[in-house]
Task: structure prediction
Amino acid sequence: MTVAPPPLPLTISGRSLLDSVRIRWGGLGSLCLGFGLLTTGEPAGVFFGIILMALGMATWTLSGFGATYWHDIQTPQRYVVGTGAVLGFLTFILFVGAFLLMASAIQLFAANRN
Result:
């Protein structure tokens, strides 16, 4: 008899923010947000930019670039991986959503000029 693995936390409609693919994208989102804050040149932006870039790298490193199953990650490391994955993935979704909103607004305005 095979025992099913426990479900991942933060699961909505069968998808979790903590599965391997979203951990990878979350790490990228944390890196991008950190880089964006770093380039502001303000002291707080530089500080939080470095922190968020380190969080993105730690998310990838501690999860083996998403290859390690969530329940196989040690509990203290789950806090870092979970924070980086959720924050980065939500940032990535906001960036993509803003890009799509701007693209559709440009198309709408261009179509009305004719």
About this structure: The mean pLDDT is 89. The radius of gyration is 18 Å.
